[in-house]
Design goal:
This protein is of the alpha+beta class and 256 residues long. The protein has two domains: 2-121, Aminopeptidase; 125-246, Aminopeptidase, CATH 3.40.630. Helix content is 27%, strand content 44%. It has helices at residues 2-11, 19-26, 75-89, 104-112, 201-217, 232-241, and strands at 31-38, 41-51, 58-66, 94-100, 116-126, 141-143, 146-155, 158-170, 173-184, 189-197, 222-228, 244-255. The protein has a twelve-stranded mixed sheet. Helix 3 links the parallel strand 3 and strand 4. Helix 5 (201-217) packs across helix 6. The two termini are 31 Å apart. The relative contact order is 0.17.
Length: 256
């Protein structure tokens, strides 16, 4: 594990976990970590984990790191192909990765390994609580004239894969809906907000912010959401709520 963190810090520098903390994350049921070796030396890794998705279990190709002196030798592509093989073997319906739009080398590796670009999105992060906007338990809660409701979603046959469906109700009708996933990575514990929908961008942003506040109140480090760059209304409404943009990414996908 110390060797893995050494490679991570030389290649990415995103994790500040201790050896014991990183080991605890990788021992969680949804996780898979693949390593590339030259002799007995670890030169690259790919940390993955399964998540709930509407279409079926999805393998997230989360952190890909290769030592600088071992790049451009096919290591990253080999790791990604091994992860896709695992997805097939474990009956995952989908695999997904996000790559910064300015990271041409990483993008090339994912494309060579068989993923395709599904879209371009801004990564929006929520890490500052706003008092009074959300319920810590994500249970149904009264918010003045609005109600925040939640229900559990589970993946058949994989009890460790679950999510919460959330909806914002006003005047007896749902005005916005989303799915909230809790994830544990080598960099953070957070909430991913997905499938955000609703007729009004301000309602969509309000629901996302309530879920972000709930995540922080539960002790998670942050909430995040990928806002498609062509969805200008949602992007603008989220920024107006106080979400911070953390870069633009290609969303890459593979399906069984």
């Amino acid at each position: 594990m110390a060797e893995l963190l050494h490679v991570e810090r030389r290649s990415l520098g995103d994790s500040d976990l201790s050896v014991d903390e990183a080991l605890a994350v990788l021992q969680l049921p949804p996780h898979l970590c693949l390593g590339a070796y030259v002799g007995e030396a670890l030169v690259g890794f790919l940390s993955c984990f399964e998540t709930y998705a509407v279409a079926g279990p999805r393998l997230e190709l989360d952190m890909l790191g290769v030592l600088p002196e071992r790049r451009n030798r096919g290591v990253a592509t080999a790791l990604i192909r091994a992860a896709i093989a695992h997805a097939r073997a474990s009956s995952a319906a989908l695999a997904r990765a996000v790559v910064r739009t300015d990271n041409a080398a990483s993008l090339a590796a994912f494309l060579k390994a068989g993923l395709s670009v599904a879209g371009e999105a801004a990564l929006l992060i929520w890490e500052r609580p706003t008092p009074g906007l959300a319920s810590p338990a994500l249970a149904s809660a009264s918010l003045g004239s609005e109600t925040l409701g939640c229900g559990m979603l589970r993946a058949p046959g994989k009890p460790y894969l679950n999510a919460r469906r959330a909806w914002l109700v006003r005047a007896g009708g749902a005005v916005a809906r989303a799915i909230a996933l809790q994830v544990n990575t080598l960099a953070y514990r957070g909430c991913w907000i997905e499938e955000l929908a609703g007729a009004c961008a301000e309602d969509r942003a309000a629901l996302a912010t309530m879920l972000g506040n709930a995540a922080l109140q539960q002790g998670l480090h942050e909430a995040g959401m990928l806002a498609l760059t062509n969805d200008v209304a949602t992007h603008s409404a989220m920024l107006a709520q106080g979400w911070q943009e953390a870069g633009t990414f290609y969303v890459l996908s593979w399906s069984a």
